[in-house]
Specification:
Strand order of the largest sheet of chain A: 1-7-6-5-4-2-3
Shape of chain A: globular
CATH superfamily of the largest domain in chain B: Type I PLP-dependent aspartate aminotransferase-like (Major domain)
Structural class of chain A: alpha/beta
CATH superfamily of one domain in chain A: Type I PLP-dependent aspartate aminotransferase-like (Major domain)
Number of strands of chain B: 13
Largest sheet of chain B: 7 strands, mixed
Strand content of chain A: 5-15%
Distance between the termini of chain B: 61 Å
Radius of gyration of chain A: 26 Å
Bound molecules: pyridoxal-5'-phosphate
Order of helices and strands of chain A: HHHHHHEHEHEHEHEHEEEEHEHEEHHHH
Largest interface: A-B, 210 and 216 residues
Number of helices of chain B: 14
Distance between the termini of chain A: 47 Å
CATH architecture of one domain in chain A: 3-Layer(aba) Sandwich
Number of helices of chain A: 17
Strand content of chain B: 5-15%
Oligomer: heterodimer
CATH class of the largest domain in chain B: Alpha Beta
CATH topology of the largest domain in chain B: Aspartate Aminotransferase, domain 2
Strand order of the largest sheet of chain B: 1-7-6-5-4-2-3
CATH architecture of the largest domain in chain B: 3-Layer(aba) Sandwich
Chain lengths: 536, 450
């Protein structure tokens, strides 16, 4: 990693580097690329061993017909140390919240308590088969049941299922429930209203669930839903409106109760994308606002570590009216105080997961909520919003905000001014890496042309926020004075900017036995050509 | 005042509010309807770390875990050996606490892991391309059915009734929205003889069918006769979708070898503990020609300005963040860390180790079946080749047998009454390399005693 400050004029750079020091973005990270595990394979080498067969053994060919047996299996042949080194080295090529500040907007990269990891590893949770008799898993069922009670209380939406395993999965579950509720009431509706600032999963979910996604604009001045456009598009053909609160600009939708009222007047449900729930925890309950359903990204608000892209949790919380439509089975508490799965759910949309969802994500969130308790929950929302506003107030001197007002847990800068210097938001993002920071979310929401979306979360200290602001301000100055430094960034990482066009035009999506580098590439290219001209 | 994981002091908070230019935290929430602000939550007071730990450990002890009780449950969740290296490696904060790899320069670790995972999935299944994972095998089959419909522009899918019924449930939920018709294909008989054959499909497959979904080995444990299925389907322009089992693929020929167009498999059990069934991770692989209809993230290799190899998320014009309502799927966050477990597992075991796992399952299940068949009143209904699961007929309802086993400290098999009323006296038993000969002997004496 860079042992010297980023290439720039010293004074400003040191300000930004106050906290991350001279480590660069990947603390103790490697400069040398790591070969693929396949490239380390040596014929005949192996790691570990399995116990000998302790039952009388028969020739395999007697048990399975020859024709059903595989003749080749080209997996890596490596030793245990090879494996441990390989993956340890790969880990060192990653940025992480355990090591550094991760201001990725919309992603709520808060600290994930280590206690939750130990709890998830308890053998009494870890070594449970999902189909064990209910009387043998009372503890696990209690966790799922009580998590449902807690999430119901926090959101004001008492019908809860932890079966969905991600935000988008929760959206799908919710919109399928809306569909089932309309059908049950004899209403065939075709549309789902979605603000133009929404996350891509919202329209994708609507389409997956058989609805037409109808876009509603936003008010450029307030950054909120364009109320007139909403009213014009709302009619009895709308099954639901999917709205994000606070919205993806980090702003509270001040008309939300009115939006809910108008929607309900025409029998349209209000689905809240709960990805931004962190701002509301302990401050306001979506159910009280009039929302009918909401998913929670347990891997955002409730501290499940994101794992480089999952596993997460997408618990769905709904009003009691919609409760009958929850995915089956639901965890119930019986009269005798025991817990069990209620499979008799005639109105259920059916299952959305092979078993009970991401149980050990639910377990982590349960532990987290019990640890925080009532006051701790209040502190989450309050400090998430405090930190965001503090950072916003420090950055607004150099970076225009798309909408300049008090924000909730995140805010969006407008990076269009960088164009005057021949730069883009992307260049700023890459330069931040040289200062030791993971860039914010960029180019989302789509309504902000050069969006820079920053979410600090409640677990960051003031010192961290100050240091990050220092880096951002230093880069703003560089952009004006030495734009080329931004163009060349990052210069402190093991690799530079990658050729994404080439990646998409000549897809190389896997290692192949006996075919190296260019040959594999032209093969996949040839196949791609064949595919384009192919039958489908 | 502040507990939990917030470290800001009261003094700092005052200074920060000053810097913002507001007098109180409440002022930051002025956009929230005032009568709804700061609700009184009915949530208990917070716990210290020690209290929380003790509480959770106590709850965990209300469960009967399989480290301490022999179990013959499979039915879609399998207990395989997990090398110690895996939990250590995935606990590294750099893997555990990173986000989806949106910034490749600081995410090469995760990106290379996914590229290797895609490669391992392809090697294992015999397919051309794979993605960064889907949620699980069940949702993977749902995605596969939708994908087959999109590829063929057809609206009907055939699903063998020997596919795991929980998978079939999820597949139905996934196909309801676009009004895809799911047609079950009868594929089993109580006597264990199978009905699913290429010839017998003739009537069911016509030009309206997008795909046939089969599971290999099937839910009841035995091998379907897959030979010729793909050709029969192709003749009608339809696709063969296969749900496979990674551990069994240590011995069995890969679905790519018998013409599968899309392959889905549950990757959790090769590298991960049972975890009460979640998180899981779906392997999803297909023919090259279908790659642009695949759901989910895909990682590709490319180069930087200096020609150095690096990995990026690619072919993203299929995805929700770009295509929105026209995306192939809505999936965003998936199961990266569990895919990492599986990648470490497959690298650690390697070609030899995985083969040995599959063979140990094969030997143990056959030994168990042979012993049980000698017990009076019990029989083995499976007559086709099987690898780790087989069906046992019992002299009493299967539920009663399971209860009697539990009284003797044994977690029995899967009660097939829930799968089909015709099988109310049948148990689906599973043995893996974790099942010892002594445990099998204990099961056999317990059954003899019932
Ligand atoms: C606003 C918003 N909605 C939905 C999602 C989708 O959630 P997930 O990635 O858990 O599927 C995200 C996460 O990226 C998001 O930021």
């Amino acid at each position: 990693m860079a042992d010297s400050p980023p290439k720039t004029n010293g004074a400003v750079a040191t300000a930004g580097l106050a906290e991350s020091g001279s480590h660069g973005p990947l603390n103790g990270g490697r400069k040398t690329p790591e070969p693929l595990i396949f490239e380390k394979s040596v014929p005949g080498r192996r790691a570990g061993s399995l116990p000998p067969c302790d039952v009388p053994r028969k020739p395999v060919a007697e048990l399975i017909p020859e024709a059903e047996l595989r003749t080749d299996l080209s997996l890596p042949e490596v030793g245990e140390l090879d494996v441990v080194r390989h993956f340890t080295r790969l880990s060192k090529l990653n940025y992480s919240v355990d090591a550094e500040f991760y201001p990725l907007g919309s992603c709520t990269m808060k600290y994930n308590p280590k206690l939750d990891e130990n709890v998830a590893a308890l053998p009494g949770f870890r070594q449970l088969h999902p189909l064990q008799p209910e009387e043998t898993v009372q503890g696990a069922l209690r966790v799922l049941y009580e998590l449902g009670q807690l999430l119901g209380e926090i959101t004001g939406l008492p019908g809860v299922s932890a079966q969905p395993v991600a935000g988008a999965h929760g959206e799908f579950t919710g919109i399928m429930m809306v569909r089932a509720a309309h059908i049950k009431a004899g209403r065939m509706r075709r549309k789902v209203l979605i603000p133009d600032s929404a996350h891509g999963t919202n329209p994708a979910t609507a389409a997956m669930s058989g609805y037409e996604a109808v876009t509603v604009g936003h008010d450029r001045r307030t950054g909120e839903l364009d109320f007139a456009d909403f009213k014009a598009k709302l009619d009895e053909d709308c099954a639901a409106i999917m709205i994000t609160v606070p919205n993806t600009l980090g702003l509270f939708e001040r008309q939300i109760t009115e939006i809910c009222r108008l929607a309900h007047d025409v029998g349209c449900y209000v689905y809240c994308d709960g990805a931004n729930m962190n701002a509301m925890v302990g401050q306001v309950r979506p159910g009280d606002l009039g929302v009918d359903l909401l998913h929670i990204n347990l891997h955002k608000t409730f501290a499940v570590p994101h794992g480089g892209g999952g596993p997460g949790g997408g618990a769905i919380c709904v009003t009691s009216d919609l409760e009958p439509f929850l995915p089956a089975p639901v965890v119930a508490r019986r009269e005798n105080g025991s817990y069990g799965f209620d499979h008799h759910r005639p109105d259920s949309i059916g299952r959305v997961h092979g078993f009970h969802g991401n149980f050990n994500a639910a377990l982590r969130s349960y532990t987290y909520i019990l640890s925080l308790g009532k006051e701790g929950l209040y502190d989450v929302g309050a400090n998430a919003v405090l930190n965001a506003n503090y950072l916003r107030s420090k950055l607004r001197q150099a970076y225009p905000l798309y909408v300049d007002r008090i924000c909730m847990h995140e805010f969006v800068l407008d990076g269009r001014w960088l164009r005057e210097h021949g730069l883009r938001t992307l260049d700023l993002a890459k330069r931040l890496i040289d200062y030791g920071y993971h860039p914010p979310t960029i180019y989302f929401p789509l309504i902000v042309p050069e969006a820079i979306m920053i979410e600090p979360t409640e677990t960051e200290s003031r010192q961290t926020l100050d240091a990050f602001a220092g880096a951002m301000l230093a880069i703003a100055q560089e952009a004006r004075e030495q734009p080329e430094v931004l163009h060349e960034a990052p210069s402190s990482t093991p690799i530079g900017r990658l050729d994404e066009v080439r990646a998409a035009r000549r897809p190389d999506l896997r290692w192949r036995a006996g075919i190296a580098g260019e040959a594999a590439e032209s093969l996949s290219e040839a196949r791609h050509e064949a595919a384009v001209q192919g039958r489908y | 005042m502040m507990a939990g994981y917030v470290s800001t002091t009261d003094q700092e908070r005052r200074e920060m509010l000053d810097a913002i230019g507001v007098a109180s935290l409440d002022e930051l929430f002025r956009d929230v309807p005032v009568h709804l602000y700061k609700p009184s939550l009915d949530v208990p007071a917070g716990l210290s770390e020690l209290e929380a730990w003790t509480h959770l450990r106590t709850i965990s002890e209300q469960n009967l875990d399989l480290d301490h009780h022999p179990s013959f449950l499979g039915a879609g969740a399998y207990r395989h050996f997990v090398p110690a290296a895996i939990s250590h490696l995935i606990s590294r904060g750099e893997f555990l606490s990173s986000y989806t790899p949106y910034q490749p320069e600081v995410s090469q670790g995760t990106l290379q892991v996914i590229y290797e995972w895609q490669s391992l999935v392809c090697q294992l299944t015999g397919m051309d391309v794979s993605n960064a994972s889907v949620y699980d095998a069940a949702t993977g089959l749902g995605e596969a059915a939708r994908m087959a419909c999109a590829l063929t522009r057809r609206q009907r899918v055939l699903v063998a009734d020997t596919v795991n019924p929980l998978y079939a449930d999820v597949l139905r939920t996934y196909t309801t929205g676009p009004n895809i018709e799911v047609l079950p294909v009868r594929a089993w008989r109580r006597d264990g003889s199978h009905l699913l054959r290429a010839e017998s499909l003739a009537d069911a497959v016509d030009e309206s069918i997008a795909c046939l979904v089969v599971q290999q080995p099937n839910f009841l444990g035995w091998l379907e006769q897959v030979e010729g299925l793909a050709e029969r389907l192709q003749a009608a322009g339809a696709i063969l979708v296969v749900a496979a089992d990674p551990a069994s693929l240590g011995l069995l020929r890969p679905p790519g070898a018998y013409g599968a167009g899309i392959v889905v498999a549950e990757g959790k059990w090769t590298g991960g503990p049972l975890d009460f069934g979640g998180p899981l991770v779906g392997m999803f692989a297909c023919k090259q020609a279908y790659v642009r209809q695949m759901p989910g993230r895909i990682v590709g290799a490319t180069v930087d300005g200096q020609g150095r190899r690096g990995f990026v998320l690619t072919l993203s014009t299929r995805e929700q963040h770009i295509r929105r309502e026209k995306a192939t799927s809505n999936i965003c966050t998936s199961e990266a860390l569990i895919a990492l477990c599986t990648s470490i597992y497959l690298s650690h075991l390697g070609k030899q180790g995985l083969r040995e796992v599959a063979e140990l399952c094969l030997q143990k299940s056959h030994y168990a079946a042979e012993r049980i068949a000698t017990l009076s009143g019990f029989g083995v209904a499976t007559t086709s080749p099987y690898l780790k699961e087989f069906v046992v007929t019992c002299p009493r309802p299967a539920a009663e047998v399971n209860r009697a086993l539990l009284e003797r400290g044994i977690i029995g098999g899967f009660d097939l009454a829930g799968y089909s009323p015709d099988l109310a006296d049948c148990l689906l038993l599973c043995c893996t390399e974790m099942t010892t000969g002594a445990e099998i002997d204990r099961l056999v004496s317990a059954l003899a005693d019932i």
